UniProtKB/TrEMBL annotation, chain B:
<dbReference type="InterPro" id="IPR007215">
    <property type="entry name" value="Sulphur_relay_TusB/DsrH"/>
</dbReference>
<dbReference type="InterPro" id="IPR027396">
    <property type="entry name" value="DsrEFH-like"/>
</dbReference>
<dbReference type="GO" id="GO:0002143">
    <property type="term" value="P:tRNA wobble position uridine thiolation"/>
</dbReference>
<dbReference type="GO" id="GO:1990228">
    <property type="term" value="C:sulfurtransferase complex"/>
</dbReference>
<dbReference type="Pfam" id="PF04077">
    <property type="entry name" value="DsrH"/>
</dbReference>
<protein>
    <submittedName>
        <fullName>Sulfurtransferase complex subunit TusB</fullName>
    </submittedName>
</protein>
Length: 117, 99
């Protein structure tokens, strides 16, 4: 039985390569059938904002990578409700479960391994 | 399962520490290293927030990083060396490095 892994992504989508590379790790793990979950925290929730036009800043669209997560078996997707609320996001481009602080503590406790980017 | 959270960036330049404090659960630990040790600077809001965590959370800092920055020891912070770091990594169920 593989050890479960929670990946916490807390970088804004276009500030550097980190957000994309974090998604790549999740997708690669999912392709190998590893039990992986993703949590979007802090500026990481900005990846979920609808209606982004990354071509305006010469970036590739992350939305396709995000939508691919469930197809690659990464179906446990969470976002911090406070981070969403602080950034004025009521609508997200990907279906994620919203968690309060108690929910976040419980999530982190449940997984065998946790890594934060 | 218990988690050892490791923070190595200054709390004055980003919000890793404040987010981490919200996620700490009973039995978890927090290790400050590198510029993360600036959170122990007396008289700052970060040091106050750490002191206010209470009994259920164990606080650690790498001794040499504190000393390198001229930061004083504090009774609410356990100072450890690198072998101590390894021992902590084994003691907790998992380690979450806030990269």
């Amino acid at each position: 039985m593989s050890r479960s892994l929670l990946i916490i992504s807390r970088q804004a989508p276009w500030s550097g390569p980190t957000a994309r590379e974090t998604l790549d790790i999740a997708l690669a793990g999912g392709a190998f059938d590893l039990p992986i979950a993703m949590l979007f925290l802090d500026d990481g929730v900005l990846q979920l904002a609808p209606g982004q036009k990354p071509q305006n800043v010469q970036q590739k669209d992350l939305t396709a990578n995000l939508q691919a997560l469930p197809m690659f078996g990464v179906e446990s997707l969470y976002a911090c409700s406070l981070s969403l609320q602080q950034r004025g996001l009521t609508d997200t481009s990907l279906a994620v479960e919203h968690l309060d602080d108690a929910g976040l503590r419980d999530l982190i406790s449940r997984y065998d391994q946790v890594i934060t980017f | 399962m218990t988690t050892l959270h490791v923070i190595s960036s200054s709390p004055f330049s980003d919000n890793r520490l404040s987010s981490c404090l919200r996620l700490l659960g009973h039995g978890d630990g927090l290790l400050l290293c590198g510029d993360g040790t600036y959170a122990a600077q007396p008289g700052t809001s970060h040091a106050e927030a750490l002191r206010a965590l209470g009994e259920g959370i164990a606080l650690f800092a790498l001794d040499e990083d504190l000393e390198a920055r001229g930061l004083p020891s504090a009774d609410w912070l356990q100072q450890i060396d690198y072998p101590g770091f390894v021992a902590l990594a084994v003691r907790f169920d998992k380690v979450n490095s806030w990269l």
